Structure formats: C-alpha cells, structure tokens
Amino acid sequence: MMVCQPTSPWFATQQVDVMADPVPLKRLVTRLLILVVAMFAFGFALVPIYDVMCKAFGINGKTAGQYEGSQVVDPSRQVRVQFLATNAIDMVWEFRSKADELVVHPGAVNEMLFVAYNPSNKPMTAQAIPSISPAEAAVYFHKTECFCFTQQVLQPGERIEMPVRFIVDRDMPKDVKHLTLAYTLFDITARQPPVAAHSGG
Amino acid sequence: MSAVIDDHGHASDHAHGPAKGLMRWVLTTNHKDIGTMYLWFAFTMFLLGGSFAMVIRAELFQPGLQIVEPAFFNQMTTMHGLIMVFGAVMPAFVGLANWMIPLMIGAPDMALPRMNNFSFWLLPAAFLLLVSTLFTPGGGPNFGWTFYAPLSTTYAPESVTFFIFAIHLMGISSIMGAINVVATILNLRAPGMTLMKMPLFVWTWLITAFLLIAVMPVLAGCVTMMLMDIHFGTSFFSAAGGGDPVLFQHVFWFFGHPEVYIMILPAFGAVSSIIPTFSRKPLFGYTSMVYATASIAFLSFIVWAHHMFVVGIPLVGELFFMYATLLIAVPTGVKVFNWVSTMWQGSLTFETPMLFAVAFVILFTIGGFSGLMLAIAPADFQYHDTYFVVAHFHYVLVPGAIFGIFASAYYWLPKWTGHMYDETLGKLHFWLSFVGMNMAFFPMHFVGLAGMPRRVPDYNLQFADFNMVSSIGAFMFGATQIFFLFIVIKCIRGGPPAPAKPWDGAEGLEWSVPSPAPYHTFTTPPEVK
C-alpha cells in the first residue's frame, strides 16, 4: 500500500486504509457544521422562548399585555397592592405614585395615578417597565390600561399624571395577601428622540 | 519556506521528519507538533492566569486595600477566570487530545490536519487581544468571568468589544478542534478498534467534543447579542427596550454548565487510563464508565438554572433544577466507585501520575460534595456568591481538571520526550501542589459559610486569619508550578531513556510505538484484536 502523509490531503481518510467509514468524512463534517449553525440559531431562539415562558408562567414578575376581560367582584377577600416607582440609573425625572398602596377586592377594577415630571431643559422620552412581586402572582395581575403600554414624551418642565387600571384575579392563590407593583422608568431619549411638538402621556 | 512546502508536498516521501526552524511550527499539520504547541500555550496561559491569582491573593492577604485599586482587582478576578478556563484548561485538553487520540486509536494523524493548525493559531491571536485590553484606557474586562449583563453591556469598559471578539475567536477555535476530534474518532480508528474497545480518554473526548459543538455556538450567540446591545441599539438584555438581564444568565449558563463538564470529562478519561496502569488491573466497569460519562453530558444540559436560584425563578423551577442537579451525583458516583474498585486489591505503586490521579479522585469528590450542598436550592440562598462557591469550583477545577492534566503529563512525558522524568522531583511537585492547593482552597469553605462574599478586594476583620492561610497556600501552589516547568524542561533535555512501554501495567496502542513517538506513527494501521 502506498502510505500517504495525512498532512497533505485535506481529508486524510480518502487515502488511508482504515475501517470502513460508517459515514464519509465530508458528510460527517457537514453534519457537524449544520449542528453548529443550528445551535447558534438556538441561542437566539432562546430569546422568544424565554419571553413566551415568562408571560405564560409569570416567571420573573413579568406581566402580560392589555387585559380585555372583566370579572365578578369578590367582596369577601382583600388584597393589599403596594406601588413602587423607581428611576433607572441616569434618569432625571421625578416619578412617584399618588398613594403608596391600595386595598382592593379581587375582581374589581382599580385605578392608581402615577406622576411624572421632567425637570430638565430638553424634551425627553421615557419607558416604564412593570414588575410584580411575588413573581408567582404576576399571571393573576391584569392591567386593563397602563402607561407602560406606551412611551411618554415630556417637554422641559412638563408634568403629567398617568393612570394604571388593574384587576387582581379572583383565582389568585389564597396565600398571596400582599402584592407589589414596581415600575422602573428608563430614559430612552437616545433611542426614541422626542418630537419637538407637544405630546402627552 | 519553499523547502517546507516541498517537505509536505511529496506524499510518497513517508520517512521525512519535521521541517527545520520556526516555520515548522507555523505551518505544521502534524498532530504531535500541534499537540505540543497546545500544551505549551496552555502552560503559558496557566502561568499568566496564575500570576493574576497571585495578585488577588496578595491583595487579600490582609483586610484593607493595600496593593491594587478595587477596579484593577475586578479586572484580575475576571481575567484569572477567563484565562484559566479558555486559555489553560481547555487548550491543555485539546493538546492532550491531539497528541494521544491518534496514538490511542491507531490513526496516522487527526482527520483534518490543516484545520487543526488553524484552530491552534487562532488561540494566540485571541488571547493577545484579550490580554491587551488590560493596557487600554478604562482597563480590561472587570465584570467577572461570567460577564453578566448589564455589567458587561451598559456598564462595561470600552474594551468590552475586544473581549467579545476574543471570545468569538476562542469559540471558533474550540468548535473546529471539536469537529476534528469527532471526525478523527469516528473515521480514523484502526481496523478492529470498535467503539467499545476505545480507551476511556477517547470516549470522554468524543462526548466532550459533542458538548463543545452544542454549546460553544450558544456562547457565540450570547456575546453576539451583547455586541448588538452595545453597538447596534438592540435590547436583548436591556429592560428599557423590552429585554431582560435575566435572559443573559439563562443563555450564558446554558453554555456555562456544559462548559464545566467540558473541563472535567477529559480528566475523567485520563485518570481512567492511569489508575488501571498503576493498579495493574483492568479498569473496573468500563461499560458503566462510558454510560456514566454520557449521562453526565446529557444531564449537563438541563441543570443550568442551579446557578440562578436567587434571581427569582418559580418554586417548581427551583425544585426541577435542584433534583436534576442532585441526579448528576449518581453517574459521578458510579465513576468514583469504579476508580476505587479498580484500585481495590490491585498491586498499587505510587509513581507521580498515580499520586496525582489518586488525589484527583479524593479531592474531586470533596468538590463534588460541596457541589451537592450548593445544589440544594434553599441552602444555596445562604451560599450564593460567597467564598463557599469559590472553594467548590476550585476543588473541582484544580485537583480535578489541573491535577488530571498533571497526571496525564507525567504519564505520557516518557512517550513524548523519550526520557523518564525525575521521579523524586515529580513527587516533590505533587506534594507541594497538594499541600499548597488544600491550604489555599480549604479555608475558603469556612469564610464562605461565615458569609464572606466573592469578588471583593477587602473584607471584614473576622475573615483575616483564614484569608492569610489561603494566600500562603496559593503562593506555595503558584511557585510550585515554576518548579513543574523545570521538571518538564529537564525531562526534554535528558534523563534515562524511556522504553516503548515505561509503565509495566500500561495498556493501549500508544505504548506499541517507540519512545519518543516518531514524527509519523501508524502510517500503516495496526490490527486491534
């Protein structure tokens, strides 16, 4: 047999007499490369998968979008809902809720107003991100209207009141007696430059 | 240069040796040359990452800030982790794979020799890029080796882009190396070398290669998302734009957990060759070893969130990831049982490779047990991000991966160099490493349980004594590795000539070729009965 240098050909097996290849080398390498590409795509697929899982199971305190339904009020039960308004780092707005907490009945529609004020001398855009604690209650917290569904543009010195209307689900586990709805306000002016004309929240 | 090309151009000239000069190393496609380069590169990175660890331990020698700025301290912890994981342990195992897999399965070389050359030479480029960031204004990566967003995106130093590119290069190198290993093992085995006759080192590397192919692309995706968040206005990990920083941790640990098995499985394989040799008995439970390795690899994909027990995952999730993690103890227990059973009633001798291998079994088991403690979700709330975690993963990585590499190096040095290493010096290296390593890492369990957080340059006075002991142990371990360099160089330069089979109890095709192994081996495939 002419012994070949494995160093010279790209695919050494074609000349080296070894066991019958179960899969030709070229096809094997192609399959492995497809696996590499598939796993790279899977890394990105984790993004929507994660979003779907979070919304479906209320993981991480993520709340769903706008709630369309309505429920019968359960007057026998009371739940405390606390409100937190926090600025993300570098956000200069004043941001607070009108009251610290509400005591609500599951099933009833409630409203809370949040106040935002732009003390700077330029128009700015903001986005509020909600989160519910404890996280397992997130799927039982329905927002029928929320300023977090849109972005807010405030002119210099402008102040607005922004409503959130919500229903605490009647099916929420009985051991949850106390919820916290926390908003973090992010400055997204760089990403969404505000239109110079007036706009509201 | 033309001489070199000529050298490789004549396929019929099968008696030629290596080319001369520097270009031999730049252009080589020989698995032994490339394996040697991988091993030297890994050792260089081991010393560099180790010197960063010395900076960390010097700062922690006493409470208070005395030697480095906290910002630089953060860069040291980050670079120590990155360099040890991607620069030292992984390339060392790829080097061992390059050297030993063709010799163990009777193949003339790796299946894709030119790609082999490329995957090695990407590494110096990647690490030059990574280390150079330390000299940039704003400093190098300072967000920990796990580079959690938003620390590594919104709040990262400017150099993070270089870090991302370096990770991409390392990833490409690892993926190409892994494809090469799979192709070699599946296609180049000698006649008669069925899968279930392969040495366990080959088996564990085959499984490791599949892990690499599966998770390195996910890491590449993860850093690509970071890059897009930083430069192209996306919001994968930024809550302001609808993303989520916790998503980063899921993507990272989906890579990160299999990664820790990537760093340990080849060591399992090497130890499974070494213990039978010095016990003069065949390995106990070969088949169960193969299945245990495959089970560990499978389980590594479904346990990632045990790194994230405190981010607020639901109770059902915590329970699932806790039980799945505890399940890993079963196949790992099978392996430890098999190693101990192999030694049971064997004619044991304790040459240096065996010392490292036995220490591996004992100390890796200790690291495994602290892993079980961390796997218990309610207990992890206490241990999370303390020095207990640092103690745990150093116990699995230093006497696990690193001792596995030392054991392999001593075991196969006679085959590589043609000389026996100095047994007295080897044993001294072992005992200094053993004592230094335990002194450095055992007290970390105590300070961790008492609440000392990791990644801090300063700490409460109550932790002072244990930290001083840790630092002394770490200096001892670090200095000992310079001594290892001396032992290896001494062995390369001379020493008693090694026979083809220097260990009387050894089994395997690699011992059927002379020592040092000729530049080309198994150009005619051997018959395996």
From TrEMBL, chain A:
Residue ranges of the TM segments: 28-50
SUPFAM superfamilies assigned: Ctag/Cox11
Keywords: Copper, Membrane, Signal-anchor, Transmembrane, Transmembrane helix
GO CC field: plasma membrane
KW Cell cycle (keyword) present: no
Annotated compartments: Cell inner membrane
Annotated InterPro entries: CtaG/Cox11_dom_sf, Cyt_c_oxidase_assmbl_CtaG
Topological type in the membrane: Single-pass type II membrane protein
Keyword Transmembrane (UniProt): yes
Signal peptide: none
GO MF annotations in UniProt: copper ion binding
Pfam families: CtaG_Cox11
NCBIfam families: PRK05089.1
PANTHER family in the record: CYTOCHROME C OXIDASE ASSEMBLY PROTEIN COX11, MITOCHONDRIAL-RELATED, CYTOCHROME C OXIDASE ASSEMBLY PROTEIN COX11-RELATED
Family membership noted in the UniProt record: Belongs to the COX11/CtaG family.
Function in brief: Exerts its effect at some terminal stage of cytochrome c oxidase synthesis, probably by being involved in the insertion of the copper B into subunit I.
UniProt-recorded name of the protein: Cytochrome c oxidase assembly protein CtaG
Organism: Pseudomonas rhodesiae
Automatic annotation (TrEMBL), chain B:
EC nos: 7.1.1.9
Pfam families referenced in this protein's UniProt entry, alphabetically: COX1 (PF00115)
CDD domains assigned: Cyt_c_Oxidase_I
TM ranges: 37-58, 78-99, 120-140, 160-188, 200-227, 247-271, 283-305, 311-334, 355-377, 389-413, 425-446, 466-489
InterPro entries per record: Cyt_c_oxase-like_su1_dom (IPR023616), Cyt_c_oxase-like_su1_sf (IPR036927), Cyt_C_Oxase_1 (IPR000883), Cyt_c_Oxase_su1_BS (IPR023615), Cyt_c_oxase_su1_dom (IPR033944), Cyt_c_oxidase_su1_bac (IPR014241)
Reactions catalysed: 4 Fe(II)-[cytochrome c] + O2 + 8 H(+)(in) = 4 Fe(III)-[cytochrome c] + 2 H2O + 4 H(+)(out)
Gene Ontology BP annotations: electron transport coupled proton transport; oxidative phosphorylation; respiratory electron transport chain
Keyword Translocase: yes
Record key words, sorted: Cell membrane, Copper, Electron transport, Heme, Iron, Membrane, Metal-binding, Oxidoreductase, Respiratory chain, Translocase, Transmembrane, Transmembrane helix, Transport
Pathway(s) per entry: Energy metabolism; oxidative phosphorylation
Membrane topology according to the record: Multi-pass membrane protein
GO cellular component, one term: plasma membrane
Enzyme type, top EC level: translocase
Every Cytochrome oxidase subunit I profile domain range: 25-529
Main location: membrane
NCBIfam families per record: CtaD_CoxA
Family: Belongs to the heme-copper respiratory oxidase family.
Stated role: Cytochrome c oxidase is the component of the respiratory chain that catalyzes the reduction of oxygen to water. Subunits 1-3 form the functional core of the enzyme complex. CO I is the catalytic subunit of the enzyme. Electrons originating in cytochrome c are transferred via the copper A center of subunit 2 and heme A of subunit 1 to the bimetallic center formed by heme A3 and copper B.
UniProt protein name: Cytochrome c oxidase subunit 1
Species, as recorded: Pseudomonas veronii
Higher taxonomy: Bacteria, Pseudomonadati, Pseudomonadota, Gammaproteobacteria, Pseudomonadales
Protein's gene: ctaD
